[in-house]
Amino acid sequence: MTTDNSASVGRRVLVVDDDFTVRDVVRRYLELAGHQVVLAGTGEEALASFAEQPADLVVLDLMLPGIDGLEVCRRLRDRSAVPVVMLTALGEEENRIAGLQLGADDYVTKPFSPRELALRVSSVLRRAMATPPAPAKASIVDGDLTVDPVARKVVLRGAELSLTGREFDLLQFFLDNQGTAFTRAELLERVWGWDFGDQSTVTVHVRRLREKIEAVPAKPVRIATVWGVGYRYDRQGSS
Asked: How far apart (Å, rounded) are the C-alpha atoms in residues 225 and 206?
């Protein structure tokens, strides 16, 4: 399938890192990719810059002086659904998972390839900026769960759920393919649109979805784990 790159070109990207060299290298590669780049060295600067003129995507280092990256991500999520690509060090798995749980879209581990980061940014932007085709079907109903693809709204037992854009995409994909098992690599490609990346991103998003749609997240009945494969969505019917 051919991918249109035009949606991701010329977008405003806010790069937040306290290391001048990292900021400068990332800026150069992103500008080569056609993006407009704004730099910030602290969490305070990043939040002020975003408040003055929102970015289309934020590249965010987790280890920042003052307000750290996790808090910046949390505050951004309170006001916007802007895509966030985190920069993390090798030993920061706990913080990386926390960032994904806050709604970050992807992460790149330091030391990283600037070219790979630019590709990740373009991939996330392309998906975020793409205009989805008009859905050919009405809301998807599975028992007490209703998903409206047009309004991008999810209602469970009469209450509307708060899902990130990626969580919604993942849930809709599962509902569109009920009963079919997918590997994490397949989900990464078909939901995220990436043919590379850390599959733990999928694991974290599945966990978050279970916490929101399962009665007992530790014993899921909708999003089943298929051992040795990945995940499968099991329809609950009208009960």
From this structure: 10
